[in-house]
């Protein structure tokens, strides 16, 4: 197969073998779920329920008037026992609704089929996606109804589904394509109708040959949809890099995929859209890969949102050996956890557990000016320069060097022989510059 790719990038050890052959497995219904009212980029939701209320699975329990937001739904049936601040995976606090499950998982009356692509208008489909609380399930959690609402001054002709799953260890998108290919394609066709796009592509890396075969067979009679084999390289699944690889268009600096007529969505997001249309099911569960040397039985689980990390780990046999680190997401872009007593949410694509002897402790050394970070940066930035500017609060220069073009893939930190935490400083620089811009706007 002739594979496509982008320039730069890195080749980490992928280590997907532990779960690549493991089918998606339904996790047990937890006795209690803690459901944060902000599981998306945008405005947080306000609670629509009170302590003591009885709720059903799929019932809306949080919403916002803001366009850039996504409703929150109960993932189990039971009783609301608390509404208040909780710690989340990123270390912040947010308001959450805690529900004690009754064990029945009774569905709310609103969970019913909404129609089909042919009979529903583009706006009706967008409304369904919005009401279902669907967000990008690749990890970014941007509200999907916003992404598919194309502004009047833009014209979208192409939708690309991201089946690259380029992060090491993670395999849920791979399994989804193998086990639910028809749902993937149906969701893609729905996105194409919502955006009025004529062409659809599914980009899949060559380390998933079975998924490429299955998806090609599924779209065999779809003249406007093609499967694009991609080289195995990180970050192949990043939006801008995926667009370049699939259709050879370059998103301009500071621009969005819409600027080149493209909308990109994740494989899991497409399946969630299918479920919302065909079954009326809001986003109350998602898939997650739980793997690493520090877990007894690595699995790909389908879990109820709000389940605690430690409960999911326990369903995989629990911890093994001397635990050294738990990472939420993939090893390149994931966040190390201070505790597993936090809820898994719409953005939880992976839970990686490593034993202590796998974790290298090191102190950063001085930059040797090898320029490897520049060589691998997929958006052609100068990571070491941005890092140094951030360390000394040189705000104007951060903007001059296009810091917001950074996609935070971590390739620079990965390749640096001096072990300088380049991405850490770049993220800090972004925060400093954002705060300064807000201050100037006041």
Structural write-up:
Its cofactor is [4Fe-4S] cluster. It is a peripheral membrane protein. The complex is composed of six subunits: RnfA, RnfB, RnfC, RnfD, RnfE and RnfG. The longest helix is centred in the last third of the chain and has 20 residues. The model has no long low-confidence stretch (mean pLDDT 96). Among the domains are: 159 residues, 3-Layer(aba) Sandwich (Rossmann fold), CATH 3.40.50; 70 residues, no CATH class. The chain has a 6-stranded mixed β-sheet with strand order 1-14-13-17-15-16. Strands 2-8-7-4 form a 4-stranded antiparallel β-sheet, with no helix packed on it. It is globular, with a radius of gyration of 21 Å. It is 28% helix and 20% strand. Strand 15 and strand 16 form a beta hairpin. It is an alpha/beta fold and 442 residues long.
């Amino acid at each position: 197969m002739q594979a496509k790719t982008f320039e730069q990038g890195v080749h980490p050890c992928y280590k997907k073998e532990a779960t690549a052959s493991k089918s998606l497995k339904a996790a047990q219904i937890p006795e209690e779920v803690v459901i944060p009212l902000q599981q998306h980029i945008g405005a947080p939701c306000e609670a629509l329920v009170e302590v003591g209320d009885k709720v059903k699975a799929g019932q809306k329990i949080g919403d916002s008037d803001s366009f850039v937001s996504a409703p929150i739904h109960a993932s189990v049936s039971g009783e609301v026992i608390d509404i208040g601040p909780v710690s989340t995976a990123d270390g912040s606090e947010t308001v959450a609704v805690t529900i004690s499950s009754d064990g029945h998982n009774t569905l709310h009356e609103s969970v019913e089929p909404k129609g089909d692509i042919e009979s529903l208008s583009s706006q009706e489909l967008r409304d369904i996606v919005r009401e279902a609380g669907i967000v990008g399930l690749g990890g970014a959690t941007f509200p999907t109804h916003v992404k598919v609402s194309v502004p009047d001054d833009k014209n979208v002709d192409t939708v690309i589904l991201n089946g690259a799953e380029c992060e090491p260890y993670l395999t849920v998108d791979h399994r989804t394509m193998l086990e639910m290919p028809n749902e993937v394609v149906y969701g893609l066709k729905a996105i194409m109708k919502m955006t009025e796009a004529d062409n659809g592509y599914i980009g899949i890396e060559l380390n998933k040959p079975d998924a490429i075969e299955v998806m090609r067979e599924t779209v065999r009679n779809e003249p406007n949809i093609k499967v694009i084999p991609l080289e195995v390289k990180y970050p192949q699944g990043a939006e801008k890099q995926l667009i370049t690889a699939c259709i050879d268009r370059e998103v301009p600096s500071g621009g969005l995929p819409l600027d080149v007529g493209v909308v990109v969505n994740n494989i899991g997001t497409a399946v969630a859209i299918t479920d919302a249309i065909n079954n009326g099911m809001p986003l109350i569960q998602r898939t997650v890969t739980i793997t690493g040397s520090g877990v007894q039985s690595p699995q790909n689980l389908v879990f109820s949102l709000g389940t605690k990390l430690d409960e999911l780990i326990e369903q995989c046999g629990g911890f093994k050996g001397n635990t050294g680190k738990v990472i939420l997401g993939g090893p390149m872009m994931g966040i190390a956890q201070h505790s597993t007593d936090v809820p898994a949410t719409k953005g939880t694509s992976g839970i990686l557990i490593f034993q202590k002897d796998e974790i290298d402790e090191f102190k950063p050394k001085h930059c040797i000016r090898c320029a490897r970070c520049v060589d691998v940066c997929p958006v052609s930035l100068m990571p070491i320069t941005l890092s140094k500017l951030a360390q000394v609060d040189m705000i104007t220069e951060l903007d001059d060097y296009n810091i917001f073009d950074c996609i935070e893939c971590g390739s620079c930190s990965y390749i640096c022989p001096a072990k300088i935490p380049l991405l850490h400083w770049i993220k800090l620089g972004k925060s400093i510059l954002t705060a300064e811009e807000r201050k100037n706007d006041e």
